[in-house]
Amino acid sequence: MNSGPRQFVVEGAGLGLRRALMGPLRDAGAGSFDFLELVPENWINVGGRLGRQLRAYTERFPFVSHGLSLSIGAPSPLDETFLIKLKRFLDEHQIRAYSEHLSYCSDDGHLYDLMPIPFTEAAVRHVAARIRRVQDVLGRRIAMENVSFYTMVGAEMSELEFIRAVLLQADCDLLLDLNNIYVNSVNHRYDPVAFLRGLPLERVAYCHIAGHYNEASDLIVDTHAADVIPPVWSLLETAYSEFGVMPTLLERDFNIPPVPELLAEVDQIRQRQQRTLQTRPLAQAGESARVRA
After folding, report:
1. pLDDT higher than 70, residue 113
2. How far apart are the first and last CA of the chain?
3. Cβ proximity of 7 and 290 under 8 Å
4. CATH number of the domain residue 206 falls in
5. DSSP string covering 60-94, please?
6. Is-above-0.85 flag for pTM?
7. Cα 31 from chain centroid?
8. Which range has the worst mean pLDDT, 30-44, 92-106, 237-251, 274-288?
């Protein structure tokens, strides 16, 4: 249980902004979402009409960002040229938070996938040092996301122990992905609620929920291409009930439904947040103290 209210840079229910949504979301009704998330690699150095469209959004709504190419666990050196461009972009658009995946995606070239980091003490030290360097260059704390993965690579500790150790040694925040917890709990056979309770949730910057694909009864693939399923909603409700309402964003990258359906799913987040705040006085007190959008 929290000892007191936490401060968040955004609040409420958010949505991932994809280019296919730039037009349809422009006329969304007031209150359809509370914040938006973008992938910075898709927008750095983009000018012209698209650049102006993005500026219109970032001037109107609170934004967070979720990167794809930092490759924090890679053996190759950090791309500090990219980090300088990223810092300029985040500052220019007043992006309130930057997050990345606790994985890697490059080694003398881009691998075009998120690869699992070995759960070892050496990897903890390597990754934590790189996160600290990223935070130094960007001049801000960053959040690392617990990721879905499909095989263990040279593990000396559990996934939960690895995440906790990295966050502690790096002194960074957590992007809490509830769908990834559920996916891994099925694929690697553990209790998702126990895993959730074991995370340092005082470090949460915000949350992700998403849909996935059932490849088999014991294999789930994280796709962000389907509706959120009841067990993931339930896990989100558990997180709210036990640890307080946290900003939560719906990820939908493929098979994007019509905007009214998409926003109805975002509204399901808000409904759960409101129900929790009505039934949990401590959460209500914490919510009122947070940074307002």
Report:
1. no
2. 25
3. yes
4. 3.20.20.150
5. TS-EEEE-SS--TT-SSPP-HHHHHHHHHHHHHTT
6. yes
7. 21
8. 274-288
Q: What is the pLDDT of residues 124-141, one digit of tens each?
A: 999 999 999 999 999 999
In a domain, residue 8? The reply is no
Is position 152 within any domain?
yes
Q: Is residue 9 domain-resident?
A: no
pLDDT, averaged across the chain = 88
Domain count, the chain: 1
Angle between helices 230-243 and 178-187 (to 10 degrees): 120
Secondary structure in 3-state letters for the chain: CCCCCCCCCCCCEEEECCHHHCCHHHHCCCCCCCEEEECHHHCCCCCHHHHHHHHHHHCCCCEEEECCCCCCCCCCCCCHHHHHHHHHHHHHCCCCCEEEECCEEECCCEEEEEECCCCCHHHHHHHHHHHHHHHHHHCCCCEEECCCCCCCCCCCCCHHHHHHHHHHHHCCEEEEEHHHHHHHHHHCCCCHHHHHHHCCHHHEEEEEECCEEEEECCEEEECCCCCCCHHHHHHHHHHHHHHCCCCEEECCCCCCCCHHHHHHHHHHHHHHHHHHHHHCHHHHHHHHHCCCC
Amino acid at 283: A
